[in-house]
Amino acid sequence: MPTALRHPLDPPVFATRPDIRLIAADMDGTLLDDDGDLPADLLPLVRELARRRIVFCPASGRQYFNLLERFEEFADEMVFIAENGTYVVRRGREISSDCLTTGAVTGLVAAARALGRTGADLGAVICGKRSAYVERRDPRFLAQVEKYFSRLSVVDDLLRLPDDDVLKVAVFDFGSAEATTAPAFAPFLDHHRVVVSGQHWVDIMNRSANKGEGVRGLQQELGITPAQTMVFGDFLNDLEMMDAAEFSFAMDNAHPLLRARARYVAPPNSENGVVRTITAVLGLTDLSGQATRPGRLSLHSTDRGATLRACTSAKP
């Protein structure tokens, strides 16, 4: 049976050009292509945005140091929302953080270990401000974790770590995170947020932590409104971020729930959708110096040893 041809999605344009001051974009499945690479034309775009006093902000479940490594050439021109909104940093200065208590970390590690004993093929990652920590050490597992955590320490016991502020506990499941790992952490939902951040990843954080809160804190810090904010995402850990901006874009490859939450749809990550959409909406030019071709508006109707040290803002 022949496969129906898929028509490319053009970036949206607006009758009136919005006064955008802040742009936040998820990384995997959004800004990065299917090979995990940054767009070739991102650097000149970010520099042009900085010249126009528009802040560009990667908003990711990745570690801050991983983001810093990926954007080393132009990190000083950006703000980073790392660890799914629990850690916001600008030019090396912390803007905000939302940390787990020692008791919470102990309970989450125990739950991950218990799930592993049932036969689930998984491992936990303690995500601190200074480093990430794992006790599972086989190369197959470490190869997955090292993609997202540039500072990673292998330890004998996740409950005996160097002194650090713990931002979240992440669990990598070689099976389905949505079907297996997330339900196992449902008992923590009264006081924590359990987020499926990818096909194989679940992040557990304080209930107050998410990318949307990270964006709102940044808006408050910089004096920027939701009407001046554009955000891009593709998966369930981007849901709250869609509520923090009037110009919220789901990638064409996004999870159905994310598409329903966003106001607009951008071309997929495999077609450089973030850069093309920013260029079109703001009326910029691409690397060839040609204005981006206007496209159709994609508007959705929506309903809208040592102990672990917790941040001073964390409650026991």
Question: Would you kindly provide a written description of the structure presented here, covering whatever features stand out?
Answer:
The chain has 316 residues and is α/β, with parallel strands linked by helices. Helices cover 27% and strands 21% of the residues. It is built from 10 helices and 14 strands. The strands form 3 sheets. A 6-stranded mixed beta sheet has the order 8-7-6-9-11-10. Strands 2-1-12-13-14 form a 5-stranded parallel beta sheet. The N and C termini lie far apart (59 Å). The relative contact order is 0.20.
**Content-based structural category:** alpha/beta
Whole-number mean pLDDT: 89
Task: Count the DSSP helices.
Answer: 10
Tertiary shape: globular
Task: Determine the strand fraction and express it as a percent band.
Answer: 15-25%
Task: Give the CA-CA distance, first to last residue.
Answer: 59 Å
Estimated helix fraction:
25-40%
Strand order of the largest sheet: 8-7-6-9-11-10
- Rg of Cα set: 20 Å
Largest sheet: 6 strands, mixed
Q: What is the strand and helix layout of this fold?
A:
Layout: E1 22-25, H1 27-31, H2 42-51, E2 55-58, H3 64-70, E3 79-82, E4 87-90, E5 93-97, H4 102-117, E6 122-128, E7 132-134, H5 139-145, E8 152-154, E9 166-173, H6 177-184, E10 192-196, E11 201-206, H7 211-222, E12 229-233, H8 239-242, E13 247-251, H9 256-261, E14 264-266, H10 273-282
Parallel strand pairs: 1-2, 1-12, 7-8, 12-13, 13-14
Antiparallel strand pairs: 3-4, 4-5, 6-7, 6-9, 9-11, 10-11
